[in-house]
Structures
1.
Amino acid sequence: MGLFDRLFGGNKEEKQVEEVVEAVEVVSEATSESQSERMMASSSASESQSETRSETQMASQSAVYSMTASESIAARLSEMQGSAKAEPKLAEPVSVVETPAPEPEQTIEAKYEASLKKTRSSFGERFNAFLANFRSVDEDFFEDLEETLIMSDVGVELAMAITEELRGEARLAKAKSQDALRALIVEKIVDKFDEEQLPSELNLQEGLSIFLFVGVNGVGKTTTIGKLASRYKKEGKKVLLAAADTFRAGAIDQLVEWGNRSAAEVVTKPAGSDPASVVFDAVQKAKAEGYDVLLVDTAGRLQNKDNLMKELEKIGKIIKREVPEAPHDTILALDATTGQNAIQQAKEFSAVTPITGIALTKLDGSAKGGIVLSIVQSLKIPVKLVGLGEKIEDLTDFDEEYFVKGLFKELL
Ligand SMILES: Nc1nc2c(ncn2[C@@H]2O[C@H](COP(=O)(O)OP(=O)(O)OP(=O)(O)O)[C@@H](O)[C@H]2O)c(=O)[nH]1
């Protein structure tokens, strides 16, 4: 079963009928309960002379919690059909003073959902605007669809591929409603995304694993290394960090700070030192002292590509000389808020050094999360890590299902 069917599958009409039946059952139970509650309330009111509240007051309060069965079913149906015409009229709620409960820890799925809120609503708004203009499935329709997809940061190549495949989709021509069209388009996007079976986990080894991190300044490279170090430390691993971004003293200090926060050791040399010599020392230490994981931070000056290429080549050679199958992953950190600019960076870095995975940072603040689709489909590079906030625990492995659900659930 494909990803779309797994997440959103099933016959929609059947599901709606089931939901209505459920609604009838729930409401009839609730109605009989609230009727008996009301009967008890009114009998106790007439029994007790000292009762200060009048029966009218009580009736209006109980109306807050009860609505008739037909009103409730109409409300459920109107929710499903997106129509507001059958809204039940409720009385003003009674104010209740509540002590705030301690915030429960968010699940990863909930974090994805919250982080993708901006992306989801910008996607939704664009799609609804596009479908509002719908007259027929003709050439204008496909042109508008392609434009909508490009504007949603899906990327030009993927937008063209999706539109092209939908041109040959017979179900599209038969679709009668905006909802049916929307579902078919989303299904196609998810299917395209699901086509690429790329490894989404870091290539962790039994012995020493060496992960090299590259990316331009400010994208969240050092933060990602710090968060990952903390994760591995919590798992009981011996973790070493190498501050090979010797271009800026601030970058070294920042990695040392993350080392302190995650209780991981850091190999440093003064700013201006040869980055490859920091890496050499770090690999030696990792091997000699039995470390499990070595995370290497590098400088990412794209404006000087030749130097960057030479620097990364030299670092790569030194790592390989000591551990031939390493680096086990070269992770490019990309800032999700920069949209298509991130795709450009991925292309430029790929030309400098082979990238085996992406760490997509700041997804929590981005309205451009659609670039994940573009990275995976157009560049064929797996997203392996996702930054969902600034806190040390806000880093997760990329989860395709949570991502797709977080992106499209309100559209279907
Ligand atoms: N909201 C949010 N902020 C993040 C995330 N990851 C990193 N940041 C923030 O992004 C800013 C830059 O992060 P750094 O880790 O310093 O970026 P860098 O790529 O190492 O930059 P240099 O050290 O200058 O090379 C910091 O303020 C981080 O707190 C994330 O997933 N979500």
2.
Amino acid sequence: MIPYETYHGTGNDFAIVDAENHVPDRGAFAEQLCADIGVDGVLFLALEDKYSPPRAVMTLFQPDGGTAEMCGNGARCAARWVAERTGSDEVMLDTQAGTRRALVDGEEVTVEMGAVSFHPTRVPLAGDTELVEEVVGGYEVTAVNTGVPHAVAFVDDVDAVDVEEVAPAIRHDERFPEGTNVNFAEVDPDGEGFRQRTFERGVEGETDSCGTGAVAIAAVAARQGHVEHGESVTVSPPGGSLSVTVEEDGEATLTGPTAHEYADATEETPIRRIGHGD
Ligand SMILES: N[C@H](CCC[C@H](N)C(=O)O)C(=O)O
């Protein structure tokens, strides 16, 4: 009986399992739990609370049973989980993309995401040049790594994009040897920022929010001169609103709300979830 809790960050939802629980096959466990309760991934967190600030090793398993190096919304939820257990509002997260500092202010969590990179070996890309405003799968995309690979396409209206239909061609394009997450972004007609829709690798579908995707959109927007480096940019996926900053040197932060949904579920008595926010 493996216990877990569920959290979401702007509708991107996760089951969190304390790594003290031995799960022999984490991939199979995640595949089953994601299918059973409809979360976007399972975060295994190994808390090291003897350090100051406390740290946790974070490993994300996705619905396809594989891992991803980083997850922006997952990191925000993980930081809150650590803060709730330790009382510390500063948390270090050890991810496969590197160690990240997070600041927890109640439900609001900021993660220092490290430096974004357009470099072909970092994205990674098959070729040895950056992929900037090139047509892939019928869309003009720019590729950037924000902890995981992302393709960003600016469009006039994100609601007009049939994401599940058009994203897979980009997600599987041979220029991305490890695949890519796919983002569609639009200048928000009601605000200063951008609207976001994201198709996630590993979920193999659209999610209500993607933190590394929001950072990717802000990074590409800054590179293309739509926004200033260092300025706080609002990025709004269907599930809520995120704030992103990208400095001149690529260092990025991601801020937004988190929600603790359910505690004390186990794989044997799972929570049946019927949708977000209900
Ligand atoms: N939802 C996550 C991204 C998970 C990464 C994953 N889909 C991949 O790169 O395979 C986020 O908030 O950043």
